[in-house]
Design goal:
Keywords: Hydrolase, Metal-binding, Zinc. Pfam families: AstE_AspA_cat (PF24827). Its cofactor is Zn(2+). One of its GO terms (molecular function) is hydrolase activity, acting on ester bonds. The protein has a 15-stranded mixed sheet that branches. Helix 1 packs across helix 6. It has 2 domains: about 250 residues, Zn peptidases (Aminopeptidase, 3-Layer(aba) Sandwich), CATH 3.40.630; about 80 residues, OB fold (Dihydrolipoamide Acetyltransferase, E2P) (Beta Barrel), CATH 2.40.50. Strand 8, helix 4 and strand 9 form a beta-alpha-beta unit. It is built from 6 helices and 19 strands. The protein is of the alpha+beta class. Helix content is about 20%, strand content about 30%.
Length: about 350
């Protein structure tokens, strides 16, 4: 395979703290020769602890992880890092500036993995992550939220993976975030996810959906930042003893599993979405969870949407304008962590 087209301005093997950038080739109407800059930070201590790659902003309209990664970038020092932290605060810089999920080209970086060096820009960046960052690491943290279009509780999450040892480590990492909810899911929006490639490489992968709806509360920032730090302590990447929710005086978390297609409810028609249920509500199969309205037909009754299974409402569409096939509700089954082991 060809060498990467992405240039990293810092040596990731050098001890100490280094702030640099990834330079991704681009050409546009205002500059035929141009590079897109993507900040990268390496903090390497003197110890023999594990390497963690921490990534925010894979989607531009999800600032929660970007802010958490930026705060970590400033607070981490070689003295408090036992192994190495490699931090990419925002992988999709142009999308973040525009506050959009996708790149200006329409590319979804989270459907671009494992990427290829001779592909479009998103696949070139994905290829660099897949071949030059992930292989260095034991732990990969990929922070997301519901963005502008989805509301969900603040949760850490994981895919179901087949390898029992890898899955046990991922469950422990997910729980170490100390979020009030945890979520186990399947891909319903296609393949090519960052976490999927990291899992394929055998990494311990911890991900999140930290709220959403296009706004961020102060408590969401606290969950993002405190949870990230606790996960890194749990795996011995940074100094300090991790704490559990019980030790912090918090209620036990709710763990929701949504690994069947019936957990995901899609709009049967295009129109204006109205939800009937709130996050965390418990519903039964057949319960009305919302309806679609039709502006051009004010005389037409709304089309009622029903839950396809029993469970807890884990996510609700955040914006009313909805296209046929958009996910409007996620209903997951509450489980005990032992079911995941």
């Amino acid at each position: 395979m060809a060498e990467t087209t992405v240039h990293c301005t810092i040596d990731l093997d050098t001890p100490g703290k280094h702030v640099g950038r990834l330079e991704l080739p681009r050409s546009n109407n205002t500059s035929g020769w141009s590079h897109q800059f993507i900040p990268i930070i390496s903090v390497k201590g003197e110890g023999s602890g594990p390497v963690a790659v921490v990534i925010g902003g894979v989607h531009g309209d999800e600032p929660e992880g970007q802010v958490a990664a930026l705060n970590l970038s400033r607070s981490a020092t070689p003295e408090n890092v036992r192994g190495q932290l490699i931090i990419v605060p925002c992988a999709s810089m142009e999308a973040s500036r525009d506050f959009t999920r996708l790149w200006p080209t329409g590319a979804n970086l989270n459907r671009s993995f494992p990427g290829r060096p001779d592909g479009p820009a998103d696949e070139q960046l994905a290829d660099f992550f897949s071949r030059y960052l992930f292989p260095r690491a034991e732990i990969v943290v990929d922070m997301h939220s519901g963005g502008r279009t989805m509301l969900c509780p603040e949760w850490s999450e994981m895919h179901w993976v087949d390898d029992p040892a890898q899955r046990k480590q991922m469950v422990d990492g997910m729980l170490a975030w100390n979020s009030p909810f945890h979520f186990v899911y399947i891909d319903v929006g296609g393949t090519g996810l960052l976490v999927g490639e990291a899992e394929r490489q055998g990494k311990i992968v911890v991900s999140t959906e930290l709220g959403g709806g296009g706004h961020v509360h102060a408590h969401t920032h606290r969950i993002a930042q405190d949870g990230l730090a606790n996960v890194l302590r749990h795996f011995g990447v940074i100094d300090g003893a991790p704490k559990s929710r019980e030790e912090l005086g918090l209620e036990p978390p709710v763990i929701v599993r949504a690994t069947d297609m019936e957990n995901y409810v899609f709009a049967p028609e295009s129109g204006l979405w109205e939800t009937f249920v709130d996050l965390g509500a418990r519903v039964k199969k057949g319960d009305a969870v919302g309806q679609m309205h039709f502006l051009e037909r004010p005389d037409r009754p709304g089309t009622v949407v029903h839950a396809a299974c029993d469970g807890i409402v884990a996510a609700v569409r955040a914006i009313a304008p909805t296209t046929q096939g958009d996910n409007v509700i996620v209903v997951g089954r509450e489980i005990d962590a032992k079911e995941l082991l």
